[in-house]
């Protein structure tokens, strides 16, 4: 029996909260959120607000920071991009990879996500690989197949040791920013499918080490039920993570 996975409460701010709002957010949030070593709390601010977030969370090692995206090259003529080394130097510990908006708004492919995961692991940071089906894909009964296709190129480049460094976030596209949440049962079924795919590739022990988070319209009033489902190891929260009080409530909902 492997060690229980610690709940992960993650806030993806997307393109919200500039540096001044970031300072205000953390003044409020840190006053409300008691440090707790039985859970991992992490924020993904916009890159331009990262330094403000880092400074605001000095002295609170219970709050971790990540970036929303990286490019796989180490440096060079790649206007607008960030490297893993830069993210690490700034104090990031985690990196979101293949978020639904990266895939569907910016056309990022699963092959590109694999290159990014490789670069993130090589740089010693933790990749949070986001996967999830669209409504059309779900209605065509292809949800599990789509998620398996998204996992495939990443699993192909990982060793069993490396897979233990991975975090997966299941975020159905139809639930993101819509107010429609997957039912706890649907979320549990998809999380089980993700873990089964990891186990098939690397064995059950390796698969059991990987936290699988749910994302998509998570709110203070539905977080506890979602996280009580088997195999749902935490949440990746968009809109509701922008509000200090709301996100502090979601952090408490981990039990
Ligand atoms: P919402 O919580 O706003 O639906 O966003 C989810 C998400 O995309 C987190 O990465």
How far apart the termini lie comes to: 22 Å
Top CATH class: Alpha Beta
Count of β-strands: 8
Our Rg estimate from Cα atoms comes to: 17 Å
Low-confidence stretches: none
Q: What is the topological layout?
A:
Elements lengths: L7 E5 L6 H14 L7 E5 L5 H7 L6 E5 L16 H7 L3 E4 L2 H5 L5 H13 L3 E6 L3 H5 L3 H15 L2 H4 L3 E4 L13 H19 L1 H5 L3 E4 L7 H5 L6 E4 L6 H9 L3
Parallel strand pairs: 1-2, 1-8, 2-3, 3-4, 4-5, 5-6, 6-7, 7-8
Helix pairs in contact: 1-2, 1-12, 5-7, 7-9
Bound molecules: 1,3-dihydroxyacetonephosphate.
Question: What would you say this structure looks like, in words?
Answer:
The protein has 255 residues and is an alpha/beta fold. The protein has one domain (8-252): Aldolase class I (TIM Barrel, Alpha-Beta Barrel). The protein has twelve helices and eight strands. The chain has helices spanning 19-32, 50-56, 84-90, 100-104, 110-122, 135-139, 143-157, 160-163, 184-202, 204-208, 223-227, 244-252, and strands at residues 8-12, 40-44, 63-67, 94-97, 126-131, 167-170, 212-215, 234-237. Strands 1-2-3-4-5-6-7-8 form an eight-stranded parallel barrel, surrounded by five helices. β3 (63-67), α3 and β4 (94-97) form a beta-alpha-beta unit. α1 (19-32) packs across α12. The longest helix has 19 residues, at 184-202. The two termini are 22 Å apart. 1,3-dihydroxyacetonephosphate binds next to β8.
């Amino acid at each position: 029996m492997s060690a229980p996975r610690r709940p992960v409460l993650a806030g993806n701010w997307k393109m919200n909260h500039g540096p001044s709002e970031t300072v205000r957010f953390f003044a409020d949030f840190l006053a409300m959120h008691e440090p707790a070593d039985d859970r991992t709390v992490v924020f993904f601010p916009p890159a331009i607000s990262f330094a403000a977030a880092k400074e605001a969370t000095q002295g609170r090692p219970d709050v971790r920071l990540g970036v929303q995206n990286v490019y796989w090259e180490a440096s060079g003529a790649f206007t607008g991009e960030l490297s893993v080394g830069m993210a690490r130097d700034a104090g990031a510990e985690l990196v979101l990879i293949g978020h639904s908006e990266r895939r569907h708004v910016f056309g990022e492919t699963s092959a590109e996500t694999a290159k990014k995961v490789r670069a993130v692991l090589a740089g010693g940071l933790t990749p949070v690989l986001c996967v999830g089906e669209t409504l059309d894909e779900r209605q065509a009964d292809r949800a599990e197949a789509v998620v398996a296709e998204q996992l495939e190129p990443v699993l192909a480049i990982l060793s069993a040791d490396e897979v233990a460094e991975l975090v997966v976030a299941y975020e159905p596209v139809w639930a993101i920013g819509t107010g429609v949440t997957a039912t706890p049962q649907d979320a549990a079924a998809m999380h089980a499918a993700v873990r089964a795919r990891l186990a098939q590739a690397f064995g059950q022990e390796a698969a059991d080490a990987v936290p699988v988070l749910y994302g998509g319209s998570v709110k203070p009033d539905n977080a506890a039920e979602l996280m009580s489902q088997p195999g749902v190891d935490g949440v990746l929260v968009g809109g509701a993570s922008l509000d200090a009080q709301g996100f502090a409530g979601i952090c408490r909902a981990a039990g």
